[in-house]
Amino acid sequence: MPLITTSSKGVFVIAVTPFTDDGAIDTASIDSVTDFYLESGADGLTILGMMGEAPKLTQSEALAVTAQTLARASDTPVVVGVSGPGLAALGELTRAVMDMGAAGVMVAPPTGLRTNEQIIAYYAQVVQTIGSDVPVVLQDFPLVTNVPISIDTLGQIIEAHPSIVMLKHEDWPGLAKISQLRQAEAKGRRRISILCGNGGIFLPEEMARGADGAMTGFGYPEMMVQVCQLAAAGNQDRAQDIFDAYLPLVRYEQQPGVGLGVRKYVLAKRGVIASAAQRLPGAPLPPAGVAEVERLLARQSRRLHELN
Amino acid sequence: MPLITTSSKGVFVIAVTPFTDDGAIDTASIDSVTDFYLESGADGLTILGMMGEAPKLTQSEALAVTAQTLARASDTPVVVGVSGPGLAALGELTRAVMDMGAAGVMVAPPTGLRTNEQIIAYYAQVVQTIGSDVPVVLQDFPLVTNVPISIDTLGQIIEAHPSIVMLKHEDWPGLAKISQLRQAEAKGRRRISILCGNGGIFLPEEMARGADGAMTGFGYPEMMVQVCQLAAAGNQDRAQDIFDAYLPLVRYEQQPGVGLGVRKYVLAKRGVIASAAQRLPGAPLPPAGVAEVERLLARQSRRLHELN
Amino acid sequence: MPLITTSSKGVFVIAVTPFTDDGAIDTASIDSVTDFYLESGADGLTILGMMGEAPKLTQSEALAVTAQTLARASDTPVVVGVSGPGLAALGELTRAVMDMGAAGVMVAPPTGLRTNEQIIAYYAQVVQTIGSDVPVVLQDFPLVTNVPISIDTLGQIIEAHPSIVMLKHEDWPGLAKISQLRQAEAKGRRRISILCGNGGIFLPEEMARGADGAMTGFGYPEMMVQVCQLAAAGNQDRAQDIFDAYLPLVRYEQQPGVGLGVRKYVLAKRGVIASAAQRLPGAPLPPAGVAEVERLLARQSRRLHELN
Amino acid sequence: MPLITTSSKGVFVIAVTPFTDDGAIDTASIDSVTDFYLESGADGLTILGMMGEAPKLTQSEALAVTAQTLARASDTPVVVGVSGPGLAALGELTRAVMDMGAAGVMVAPPTGLRTNEQIIAYYAQVVQTIGSDVPVVLQDFPLVTNVPISIDTLGQIIEAHPSIVMLKHEDWPGLAKISQLRQAEAKGRRRISILCGNGGIFLPEEMARGADGAMTGFGYPEMMVQVCQLAAAGNQDRAQDIFDAYLPLVRYEQQPGVGLGVRKYVLAKRGVIASAAQRLPGAPLPPAGVAEVERLLARQSRRLHELN
After folding, report:
1. Fold of B10-234
2. Which end of chain D offers a freer environment for a tag, N or C, measured as fewer CB atoms within 10 Å?
C-alpha cells in the first residue's frame, strides 16, 4: 500500500463517517462515499478526523471503518487520524491501522499543551511511541485544539523529525504561515507537503502561497480537485472562477457545529450516503437551514452553468 | 441628537479610527471617513469598537475622536463602544459620550465571566452604573470575548433591562440565535433591534432570519447598504447577487488579526483615509496580501460590472 | 456488588495506576495499593480518573485494571471514570465496567461545551446512552475541563436525572456551591451525595458546609479518613488539627502537573507501589522536588507526633 | 525617588485600594494601609495591581491613588501596575507615574497573545513605547492572563531588554521555573530580581530555589517579611514554622474571586482600612465565610503563641 511522503499533493478528502438514522454505522454507504470521493478526483482520503466523527466511534468501530475504507480505496492512499489524549492508545491505534495498510497517521496536539517546549516535547514522544518509520501528518488547527503552534516551534518540530512528512494546515489566519514555511525551505530546511484545511475557504490563495493541495471536506469535493489542478497548472483565474461559484456554500458549511450537518445533507441529497444522520451530540440541519442550503444549491447550479 | 431604539434598523458602520503613518490620530481623515460612510448610505455609525482600535487610544483621544465624529455625523446616530474591564471607567465614559450626543453605548461582556449567573449580574451592574435611560447595545461576540451567551441567558437579560434596545449579533454560528430570539418575541417578549456583525459574511441569511440590518465594517459599506435594503424590500435574489460579488473580499477581510489591515488598505486606496496605518501591535498588510487584495478587487469590479 | 447512592459518604480515594519503570502496568502493585487504600479506611475507590492516568491507558488495559481492582476491593464500592469525547465509547465502557461490578460511573463534561443549554443536553444524552439505572457521579472540575457549571445549571441537571446520585465537587472556589446545593435541598430538591476533590485542600470547610466526604487522592489517605470521621462526629477542632499537620504537603501536592509525581513518590516511599513511574508525558519528581518533599515529610512526622 | 533594580529584594506588598461602603475611594485609609505595610516591614509596595482593583478605577482615580501612595511611602519604592489592552494608554500612564516618582512599572501580557513570537514582540513594543530607562517588572501570571510564557521565551525577553529588571513570578506550578532561570544565570545570562506571587503559598520553597522575595498580598504581610528574612538568613526551619502557622489562612485567601474579600475583611478587622468594601463586581465575604475566617484566625493566634 502507498505511503504519504513529503511530495504528496493534490486533494485528500476528509471523509465523513456515514450512519443510519438510528446511529449505527452504515457500511453500504462507506463503500459508496469512498467511491464517490475517488470518482471526484481525490488523490487520497483522510478518515477518523474530527469531521469524520471519530471521537464518537468505539475503538472496534474505528478499526472496522478503517479496514473497510482501505479495502475499498485500494491503491489510493488513506491517512488515518489517531489523535487522542494518551500516547499508549495512540500507539496502539497507529500500529493497527498501519498494519492494515494506512498511508500514514494524522496527529493534532492535545488540548492542554501550553508552551512551545511542551508542543515540541509532545511530537518527540509521539514519534518515539509510534516509531520513526510511520509517516505523520501534523494537524495544526488551533481554533479547535486551542494549541497555537508558532512558526518557530513548527520549524523545530519539522527539523527534529523526518517522519513528519506533511502539514495539515488550518491555522487561521494562516496564509503568512505557508509563505514563511516555504521561505525557510528556500533557505535550506527540508521541504514538507502542505495540504490545507478550513473547508477550503482560502484555497486559491493557499495554492498561490505554495501549498500542495487540500486536506479537508466539502459537499462538492470536485471543486477542490478542480481548483488545485487549475492552480497547479498556473490557471489562477479559472481556478478562482470555479472557487467563487461554490464560495457561498463553502462559507455556509464553515459554520462551527453546523457545518457537518450541511455537508452530510448535501452528500445525502447527492445520493452518496443513505442518511445525513450524525451521532449525538451532532444535530441534523434544521428546516430553516435546509431551505437556506437548497437556495444556495440552486444558485450554485446556475452559476456553474454560466461558467461552462 | 437621536437615540437608538428597539426600532433602529439598517446599517450602522463600525468606523475605523484613522492614524497617520507615525501613529497620531489623523483628524482630517476622521471627517473624510465619516462623510464617506454617510454618503455610502449608512443609517448610523459605531465608533470605539474593537475594529476601531479603541483599546489603543488614550482616554483623552477616545473623547476627542467621539466629539469630532459626533459633530461631523450631525443628525446621524452614533453608537459609542464603552466596553472595558471596570464599571467605574465604563460609567465615566458613558456619561461623557452621552453628554456629547451619542445615540447609545455598546457593551460587550468582559473576558473572564464564566456562568449565566455572572453574565446576567454583569449587565444588571452595567445598567445600574450608567442609568436605565441610556440606550445600550449588547455585543455578543464570543470568538473575541470568550464569553458565550446562551439564548436563555440572553432572554433573561433582555427581559430584565428595557434600556438594552439592540443586539450586536456576532455569535458564530448564530443564525439559529436570530430565529430563536424572534420566536420568543412572537410569543410575547418585547422586540429588540438585531444588527449583525462578523463582517457581514452571513448577511443575506441573517436578514432572512429576521435581523434588522448590519453593524459591522467592510471596505465597501455600500454592499451592506444594498443588501439590507434589497432584503428588506423582499428582493432576496438581487441582494444575494450583490453579496456574492463582494463575497471573495468579505471572506478575505474576515481573517482574524489580518482583517483590519485589509479594510484600511481598501479605504486608503479609495481615498477615504490618508493612510492605512494601524497603531501597534497592528501590522500593515504585507506585500503578498496587497497582491491578493488587488487581484480580488479587480475581479470584484468585473463582476459588479456584469451585474449592472 | 454495592452501588453508590445519594446516601454514599466518607472517603472514596482516587486510586493511582501503578506502572513499572518501563511503563507497563504493575499488576502486583495494583493489589498492594488497593489493599493500602482499604486499610487506610477508605469507604470506596475511584479508578480511571484523571489522576489515575486513565487517558494514558489503552482500552484493554483500562478494562484489565478495572477487573483486577474490583476483584481485590471485593465488597468496597468502586466508581469508574468513563469520561471521554464520544458517547458511544462512553456507553461501551460503562456497560463493560457495570457488568464487572462497578458501583457507578463518573462523567465530566467534555471540553468544548460552552453554554448552560449544552451542558444540560450533554448529561441528558449521557443518561440516555448508559441507561437510567446506572448510578452516575457528575464531576464538576472546571480548572481542567474548562467547562464551568453554574449552580442553576447543576440544579436543572440534578432535577432531571435521578440516576445522578453524586457530585464530585471540585469547582474552585466552591464552598458557596456546597452551601447553595444544600439550601436548595432544604427547600425541597432531592438530596445528592457531595464528595469533594481538589486534593482535600478545603476539606474541613467543605465538611462544615455540608459535604458528605472526599473523593480525591493524597499520599496519606488516612488524613482524609480521619478528617471526615472527626468532622462527621462534630469534632471540628481535632479534624482541623490533623488537617493542618498534613497541609504543607497537601498544598505541595496541589501543584498542577507536579502533584501526581509527588503522590506517587510518597506512595512508593511508603512501599505501597513498587515504582513512582508515570507514563509519558508524566515526569518523575525531580531531585529538587524530592528534597522538598522529604523535608516536608520529616516536619509532618514531627508535627503528628506532637499531636498524639 | 528610588528605582527598582535587578538587585531589589525582600517583600513588595501588593497594596489593596480602600473604598468606603458606598464605593468611593477612602483616602484616609490609603494613608493608614500604606503606613501599616511599611510598619510590617515591607521593602516596597506595588499598587494598581489586579488585587488592587486597578481595572475598577477611572484614570483620574488611578493617578490620585498613585500620587497619594507615593507621597505617604516617601523613600520606599513603589511599583505601579500599568497593564492594559493598549500601548498608548500604557505609555501615557507610565510617563505619568514615573514623573510622580514611581520606582518602576509592572506589565502583564494582555490576554489574547498566543505564541512565543507574539509575546516577545509585545515586550519589545512595551519597551519601545515607554523607553528603555523605565524599570519594568514582567508579571508572569498565566492563571489570570491565560498567556503561558515558556522558560525559553522568558529568557529571550530578558536578554533583549535590560530595562526588564524584575520578574513577578506567579506561574503555577513555578518552582522549576525559578531553578531554571537561576541556572541560566549561572551560565552567564544577566541576573534579574525574582519576587514571587500567588499569595505566598509556596514562599518557603521559592526562597530556597533562589527567589529574592515576595510580591504579593496577604492579610498578615508580616508573615512574608519574617519568612523572607529568615530564609535569607539561612534559617529555613524557623521560616517554615512561621509559614505553617499562617498557612491555613494563606490557603483560604487563595480562592480565586473570594480571596480579596478575605484579605480586606482581615485588614478591616485589624483596623488598617475603614471598610472591607470592594467595588462591583467584587462581593463582600459572606457570613459563612466570615465564620470560617474567624475560626482560622483564632487557631492562627494560638499557634503563633505556641511558637513564641
Report:
1. TIM Barrel (3.20.20)
2. C
